[in-house]
Task: structure prediction
Amino acid sequence: MRKLLLVLAVLFFFNGIAEAQTNKRYGFTHTIRLRHTSKAYLFRKVQDWIQTNLPANRFVMQEIEPEEAYLFGRGTNISNFGTVKYDLTFYVNNNVVDVIADNVQHSKEGRQPREIRGKGTPKQHTKAYLNAISVNLREYLLQEPRETRFSNK
Result:
């Protein structure tokens, strides 16, 4: 019985080490609601926003599905915390745009020394960056007068 417990403890220990060494990936969702706005209008505006606000050298569109109203791309953010790669998906429905950042992966490539990069973790700064992208999209969608959004049904 003791040998079995010892073997289980050793296996649990090695599993913990292996788990700690794997890349941690995470994501988040930001939902934007615009009342009385059509799916086609939102899809077109999101596509325009991507082309104007996400640099082509750091964000590459992988898939555009107008019938199912979603856009998928892969992006890279280089900051003093290192390089971050992420998947960004935009699901568009009537009145709603879901911005889903997924498969976020950090790399120490380009990381500055602790004194230069400041407080916080790479995860916190990446979430702040991706949240800023979502807020910027929301502001872009709200720029149009309500009458224009309503007439494009």
